[in-house]
Amino acid sequence: METTELLEIIGRDEDSKHQFKANVTNDISLAQEMVAFSNSGGGDIFIGVSNDGTFAGLTWENMGRLNQLVSNAASQQVRPSINPQTENIATPNGLVMRIVVPNGVSKPYMDKNGVIWVKSAGDKRKATSREEIQRLYQSAGLIHGDEIPVRGLNIADLDTDYFKAFFEKHISESLDDQGLPLPVLLENMNLMENGIFNVSGALMFARNPSLRLPVFITKAIAFPGKAIHETNYIDSQDITGKIADVFQKSIGFILGNIRHVQGDQGVNAPGEPEIPRIVLEELIANALIHRDYFVSAPVRILIFSDRVEIISPGHLPNNLTVENIKMGNSNIRNPILASYATKILPYRGIGSGIIRALKEYPDIDFVDDHDGNRFVVTIRRTENETK
Questions:
Q1: % helix / strand / coil in the chain, to the nearest 5?
Q2: Which of 278, 276, 310, 315 is nearest to 294 (CA)?
Q3: Where exactly does CATH 3.30.950.30 map onto the chain?
Q4: What is the pLDDT of residues 72-115, one digit of tens each?
């Protein structure tokens, strides 16, 4: 790193990617900082820079001690151990050590006392909420939101006729010929464990999944203008039921609140929706399948005069970016749900949905909102007084 780049970083002050320390003598406190960065996307620790942006004037002798301190902290005070890189930067006012802490691949990381630290703006804090800790395990692929058991939903809640029709259509065998109790069969299909539905099983095959999963629904509202209004809206619906029903009702809600264009069709023809149906199918399917089921919030559909917004709980997982998904890259957050969704929804599971939607209707924007922990899809509309 050049001195000019270092000065630019110092001029912007500390943030969630950059931490300044005048000096370090305690490997325990340094380990806590490195744990926080490892759990929060990685970052740089600069030793030799005070909080006010001035240089502490570290010497060559300091560098040897600090390198040993970093090594001890990373290997002995962090679980699992990490592999930071160090760089000594010469400035007119002394040396600065840059410690590059990578985004961890074996989260959650913790200090030797078992405390999980995460970044909070320019500082660090202990991770305490269950959802936050679960998301760290999720990012490492150790646990998935769709496999969490749903207490209170058991075999008595199964929509037996619906499940039987699904099984015989897609497995091509009679359910009655399996010779297994239904709970055992559902457990073999990764939909149930110890007689309790997991999130995937409940959302797909329970008669009323919202009974125990009241936030895993879709809230849809259509407004007359360009902004949210608490009381002035055209249409509103809480969409509940099995995931296949939520999908169809969500599509229907949007189609019922956008314009339909006659084009060359006769006057009695229903007209084509201003946003092609295939676009809505791809984006709604993605919202339901790839949302973060560790976040207790519904998918939201907001229809305005100039746009349609589809808001999914949870930002893009791991290292995915908006540009990645536009190129067809994917990272399956909910593998059980995704594996069955190809049979229940018009979903292919190969990362082509976003590409297909953009090809049909290019005027779509995507925002990966890490601070708000949500993913926002905005479909632009052409304003017109005639619906």
A1: 35, 25, 40
A2: 315
A3: 3-139
A4: 999 999 999 999 999 999 999 999 999 999 998 888 899 999 99
**What sign does the CA torsion over 164, 167, 169, 175 have?**
negative
Q: Which pairs from 181-184 meet CB under 8 Å and 24+ separation?
A: 182/155, 182/158, 183/154, 183/155
CATH topology of domain 218-380: Heat Shock Protein 90 (3.30.565)
Taking the C-alpha atoms of residue 86 and residue 97, their distance in angstroms, rounded to an integer, is 7
Model confidence at 351: pLDDT above 80:
no
User: Which of 203, 184, 205 lies closest to 194 in space, CA to CA?
Assistant: 184
Burial of 349 (0-12, 13-18, 19+ CB in 10 A): middle
Measured distance CA(200)–CA(204) in Å, rounded: 6
Task: Tell me the residue length of the chain.
Answer: 387
User: Is 383's pLDDT higher than 70?
Assistant: no
Q: May I ask the CATH class of domain 3-139?
A: alpha beta
The answer on pLDDT for 333 being more than 50 is yes
